[in-house]
């Protein structure tokens, strides 16, 4: 080996050494960057776990609200329906007092009094009587009007 070849080898070895140093520096930079990214990721995960904890608390609160709403529906709603039914029953009992009084029709020489009284202790039948009493009253009014016309034609 001569000096030029030796110098060339030394020069090549120096270039290899410089390349390895550069590669090690770049790897160190890459590792530093990875550590930074890992730290950022850990911060994000910590924030997410905190948010998921808050979300869990919100879900627990909403579950309590739903449970109380269920209790409210199953307990209070029947009472409200019964109260509305009672109010409707009272309204029909007070608004239609004609169902309790008799109808009086007068003709020239005769008086016809029609009194209809139906009583029951069964609440369903009472409601049904209240509901159909107006319809029955109208039908009876028509029949009595027809009877009055017939009596007036006979008298004439």
Give an overview in words.
The chain has 156 residues and is mostly helical. It folds into 2 domains: 84 residues; 61 residues, no CATH class. Helices cover 81% and strands 5% of the residues. It has 2 helices and 2 strands. It has a two-stranded antiparallel sheet with strand order 1-2. Strand 1 and strand 2 form a beta hairpin. The N and C termini lie far apart (160 Å). The model has no long low-confidence stretch (mean pLDDT 82).
What is the helical fraction, as a range of percent?
over 70%
Total of DSSP H or I helical runs spanning 4+ residues: 2
Write the element-wise H/E pattern from the N-terminal end onward. Answer: HEEH
Strand segment tally: 2
Largest sheet: number of strands, sense, barrel closure = 2 strands, antiparallel
Strand order of the largest sheet: 1-2
Uncertain residue segments: none
Give the C-alpha Rg.
50 Å
| Strand portion | 5-15%
Judged by helices, strands and strand pairing, the structural class is mainly alpha
Distance between the termini: 160 Å
Shape: rod-shaped
Overall pLDDT: 82
Count of all domains: 2
Relevant terms:
single chain; 156 residues; mainly alpha; 2 domains; two-stranded antiparallel ribbon; 2 strands
List the helices and strands and how they pair.
Blueprint: H1 3-95, E1 103-106, E2 111-114, H2 123-155
